[in-house]
TrEMBL record:
This is Reverse transcriptase domain-containing protein. The lineage of its organism: Eukaryota, Metazoa, Ecdysozoa, Arthropoda, Hexapoda.
Length: 215
């Protein structure tokens, strides 16, 4: 499998046998695709999380305290959907999938069918929640990248590394760290990461919503 903007078949032979070209490959539980995007991986994690919710549906829809049930959903179901979330590059379509999954959880928990014609805003009021899933993803990314940028490790070299060759003049793709919202670039983000107090002030509990962009 060759990962690029326009994937092309690769010829690799071992003895006389040619290796098969695939469009997606599962490695350590993560789904890698030849276009380098995370959409298939996100959809796959959402399907797995929904299946886990259905298995424990009796618990999540029981008469237990609402706050307890919300905590159980976030700890058990969201955690399953968030596997490898720190390395996701979220496009607008991916963010919509995640927000739809968030509302799916609250609707199932409150036994609200789509035929009831209840608006999402009303559902959020019933469960005393706000749209929070993108905020949680961004917070986890900030916690992870803050530790990486403060030290010297292989991951930091990979993030800062450059590939030799000529870059095609095309529309810029959204990058992994763009979700953190620092428009002044990577160098400024790294500078803030070295100052732990400044980093916590920027990426604490109330550092704002994710801006949806599609690249």
């Amino acid at each position: 499998m060759k990962i690029s903007r326009q994937p092309t078949p690769v010829t690799i032979k071992i003895d006389p046998k040619q290796l098969e070209n695939v469009k997606c490959f599962k490695y350590l539980g993560s789904l890698l695709t030849d276009d380098g995007r995370c959409t298939c991986e996100i959809k796959s994690r959402i399907v797995m999380a929904k299946a886990a919710f259905s298995k424990k549906k009796t618990l999540f829809t029981s008469k237990f305290d609402l706050n307890l049930r919300k905590t159980l959903v976030k700890c058990n179901i969201w955690s399953m959907a968030f596997y490898r979330v720190v390395s996701w590059t979220l496009r607008a379509v991916d963010q919509k999938h995640l927000e739809s999954f968030e509302m799916w959880c609250w609707r199932r928990m409150e036994k609200i069918s789509w035929t009831d014609y209840v608006r999402n805003e009303e559902v959020l009021i019933r469960v005393s929640e706000q749209r929070n899933i993108l905020h949680e993803i961004r917070k986890r990314k900030a916690n992870w990248i803050g530790h990486i940028l403060c030290g010297n490790c292989l991951l930091k070299e990979v993030i800062e590394g450059k590939i030799e060759g000529r870059i095609e003049v095309t529309r810029r793709r959204n990058k992994m760290l763009d979700d953190l919202g620092d428009r002044r670039g990577y160098s400024h983000l790294k500078e803030k990461a070295l100052d732990r107090i400044k980093w916590r002030n920027c990426f604490g509990r109330d550092f704002g919503p994710v801006v949806m962009t599609d690249y």
